[in-house]
Automatic annotation (TrEMBL):
It comes from the Eukaryota. SMART domains: SPRY (SM00449). Pfam families: SPRY. Residues 187-228 are annotated as: Disordered. Residues 217-228 have a biased composition (Polar residues). Residues 1-183 form the B30.2/SPRY domain. The lineage of its organism: Eukaryota, Metazoa, Chordata, Craniata, Vertebrata. Transmembrane segments: none annotated. This is B30.2/SPRY domain-containing protein.
Length: 228
């Protein structure tokens, strides 16, 4: 039960192509790539929402290799999708953006330019609904390197979802690499009190939404609600 973009295709801008496995999204300039009869898609800007099993804490990684422009993060299911988007936590968005291959920004109530941070080729995103935090990491190496944390994150009850944009200036795709649902306190480097932390796979954190740690009985897993 991993993350997929196909279940939320009705939210996708009409020029975003979603792969058959639901893991990849790319901008295609020519023609309409998907059609929605529900009328609830992102109409002007190239975004799509993802779907995952709902959990108090989730971590996923996205490959952005060779991309010069992208937007990644978390959005409420209820965000407006018409016209130009005002992206900030007060509008239901917790996202970072790369522009022109070099300018990395956190789109808070005031845009914060993240200087001295090398744009990653893999981005790790950690959603913690208990602590109301959304954290971003460079996942290029064996260790995670912290990029930015929003400390005014979404409530679980507001149905936060992953949001993706490959932007609209090339056809290179974004690809979801992995997904973790966890109640593990050490899943987040900040909680471990360190700048870097072994990757989720190295920590033995369950991938693909299995719901327990390896060797842990399902009845021992706590704080992970079910749902879609």
């Amino acid at each position: 039960q991993g993350m997929t973009l196909r279940r939320q295709m009705y939210t996708a801008h009409c020029k975003l192509k979603i792969s058959d496995d639901g893991k990849e999204v790319q901008w295609i300039e020519e023609g309409v790539q998907n059609e929605s009869k529900e009328g609830n898609r992102f109409e002007r800007e190239p975004f799509v929402l993802g779907t995952m099993v709902r959990s108090w804490r989730s971590y996923w990684e996205v490959c952005v290799e060779e991309k010069e422009d992208w937007v990644l993060g978390v959005a409420l299911d209820s965000v407006g999708r018409k016209g130009q988007l005002a992206m900030s936590p007060s509008k239901g968005f917790w996202v970072i953006r790369l522009s022109n291959g070099r300018s990395l920004k956190a789109l808070g109530e005031k845009v914060e330019v993240l200087t001295d941070i090398k744009p990653p080729s893999k981005v790790g995103i950690y959603l913690d609904c208990k602590e109301k935090q959304v954290s971003f990491y460079s996942a290029d190496g064996e260790n995670l390197s912290h990029i930015y944390t929003f400390t005014d994150g979404p409530l679980y009850e507001k149905a936060p979802r992953p949001i993706f944009s490959p932007w609209n200036n090339d056809e290179k795709p974004l690809r979801v690499l992995s997904l973790t649902h966890t109640s593990c306190e050490t899943a987040c480097p900040k909680k471990a009190g360190r700048e870097t932390e072994p990757s989720p796979a190295a920590q033995g954190i369950m991938l693909k939404g299995e719901g327990t740690h390896p060797g842990q009985d399902a009845s021992q897993s706590q704080g992970t609600p079910s749902g879609t």
